[in-house]
Design goal:
The structure is a single chain. By secondary structure, this protein is mainly beta. The chain is built from no helices and 5 strands. The strands form 2 sheets. The chain has a 3-stranded antiparallel β-sheet, with no helix packed on it. A hairpin with a 5-residue loop joins β1 and β2. The N and C termini lie close together (about 10 Å). About 5% of the residues are buried.
C-alpha cells in the first residue's frame, strides 16, 4: 500500500506479510475524509500481526479476513 501526496509524491509505503510469509493479500482499500487508509483482505498465516486488542486473537480457519487502518 502506497500513499501519495496531492502532488503525486510518495508519502509512505506499508507492506503486509505475516512472519510465516503465507498468502497475505489485500483485496480492497479506501480513504476517509481525513486521508486515513483502510485496507481489507485475507491471510492464511497462523501468526499474522494483529493489534493489542484484536476482535479475534487466534486464527479461525484456513483463511482469515483482516481490516487495518493506516494513518
Amino acid at each position: 500500500t502506497v500513499k501519495y501526496s496531492s502532488l503525486g509524491e510518495e508519502s509512505w509505503v506499508r507492506r503486509f506479510n505475516g512472519p510465516d510469509h503465507y498468502n497475505d493479500e489485500a483485496s480492497d482499500l479506501c480513504l476517509d475524509a481525513l486521508g486515513n487508509v483502510y485496507v481489507t483482505g485475507s491471510t492464511t498465516s497462523a501468526n499474522f500481526p494483529v493489534s493489542a486488542t484484536p476482535r479475534q486473537a487466534t486464527p479461525g480457519g484456513s483463511d482469515d479476513a483482516f481490516v487495518t487502518n493506516i494513518y
